[in-house]
Amino acid sequence: MDLMELFFISLGTAVIVCYGVKLLLFSRILFPKMWFPLSKSFFTSMGEWAVVTGASEGIGRAYAFALAEQGMNVVIMSRTKVALDQVAKEIGDTTGQKVKVIITDFIQENVFSEIEDQLRDLNIGVLVNNVGVLPSYVPCKFLESAELDQTITRVINCNVKTVAKMCKIILPGMEKRRKGVILNISSGAASVPFPLYTLYAASKVFVERFSQGLQAEYKDKGIIIQAVAPFGVSTRMVDYQKTNMMTLSPEDFVKSSLQYLRAGDKTHGSVCHILLGWLLQSIPSKVLYAEYVLHSLQDYVKKKAAQRALNATFENHKNK
Ligand SMILES: NC(=O)c1ccc[n+]([C@@H]2O[C@H](COP(=O)([O-])OP(=O)(O)OC[C@H]3O[C@@H](n4cnc5c(N)ncnc54)[C@H](OP(=O)(O)O)[C@@H]3O)[C@@H](O)[C@H]2O)c1
After folding, report:
1. In the chain, how many domains are there?
2. 54, 64, 208, 246: least CB-packed within 10 angstroms?
């Protein structure tokens, strides 16, 4: 065999191995249930209770339901008593699990000692730090945000401070029992610097770095800490966009994301959102941040929001 032949055989082998490994890694995304199986009793083996912030609707409500369906009792938290009581009733009726309601406003200062008192005697196995605020569904520049001072407080208190404070309250019990799961809900918007949603996206970068650092610190204590970063999920936050291949219902997203629980310290939580994450990161920033692209995004969302508002007015009129 001459040197040239040897070179081409080695090159061919390297390419096959390289693509083989890529295919194997890709199969982890396509078949999470096979790669990261969870036993039926996985969640209940973590503890008796799951705590979900921002659980009166949307993704938080779906997590509360899914965890109750797995046999956990759930603590659900948000600002609106009527909505929480309704969710509590639905979860209780459907699953037979206990539901504890905590009414709180995470924007306010000093709410955490009362929350700590209310959670004190519970054996908490799962925490879902879900509550999050998007300053405005219609994208706009930082200085153009309405009531900027209040917006900054809302975003920092809900998206950043609450995540750290809830971990401070619940992590010690998990550390003592040497088990537990903490899911911190980030956003696909944290994948790259995200103009026109700058404050929101930056707050979610905190969620990701915080989760990843914490996971490294507490992995040897048997605690799983993961940042979950969805793209589109049809909820109030995004004006109930129509569901499709890319925009999932909260229930479908949560069902899928729980299958990636053991897939590392960060996941986009569903095949389509993982692919979207790759795509977004591969777009050159010159293209992504071009004035034309940003304007088009703004116009597109504005038009969609206006159309939805018009449809809602029409529906209201029809129902009168
Ligand atoms: N939907 C998406 O496309 C999407 C994409 C990426 C990431 N996310 C993230 O996913 C998480 C959940 O989003 P979502 O779309 O389900 O939101 P959502 O539909 O707007 O629901 C937010 C929940 O948080 C509660 N909440 C809001 N402000 C609160 C406050 N100050 N204090 C206490 N509770 C508060 C709301 O209830 P009350 O109003 O009754 O308080 C509600 O239960 C967020 O962290 C969000 O950033 C969502």
Report:
1. 2
2. 246
Q: What does the alpha-carbon distance between residue 193 and residue 204 come to, in Å, rounded to a whole number?
A: 11
Verify that 299 and 273 share a domain, yes or no: no
Chain CA centroid to CA 19, Å: 31
Residues with CB under 6 A from ligand 1: 54-60, 78-80, 83, 104-107, 130-133, 158, 185, 187-188, 230, 232-233, 235-238
Q: Is residue 6 part of a domain?
A: no
The four Cα atoms 277, 283, 289, 291 give a dihedral, to 10 degrees, of: -120
- The pLDDT assigned to 26 comes to 85
Q: Indicate the pTM of the whole model.
A: 0.94
Indicate which CATH number applies to the domain containing 63: 3.40.50.720
Contact of 74 with 66, CB cutoff 8 Å:
no
Which amino acid appears at position 147 of this protein?
E
Ligand 1 atom with the shortest distance to the CA of 200: 47
What DSSP designation does 248 have? B
Mean pLDDT of 52-80: 98
Cα–Cα distance, 62 to 54 (Å, whole number): 11
Specify whether 157 is located in the same domain as 87: yes
Sheet of 73-78: strand order equals 99-103, 73-78, 49-53, 124-129, 180-185, 223-228, 266-267
Expressed in angstroms, the distance from the first to the final Cα of the chain is 86
pLDDT of residue 312: 80
Q: Which residues touch 179 (CB under 8 Å, ≥6 apart)?
A: 45, 46, 47, 125, 222, 223
Distance from the alpha carbon of residue 79 to the mean position of ligand 1, in angstroms: 11
Which residues constitute the domain of residue 310? 290-320
- Residue 233 β-bridge partners: 248
The answer to whether the CB of 228 falls within 8 A of the CB of 257 is yes
Task: State which ligand 1 atom lies nearest to the alpha carbon of 236.
Answer: 19
Question: Among all residues, which ones are annotated catalytic?
Answer: 200
Is the distance from CB of 58 to CB of 249 less than 8 angstroms?
Answer: no
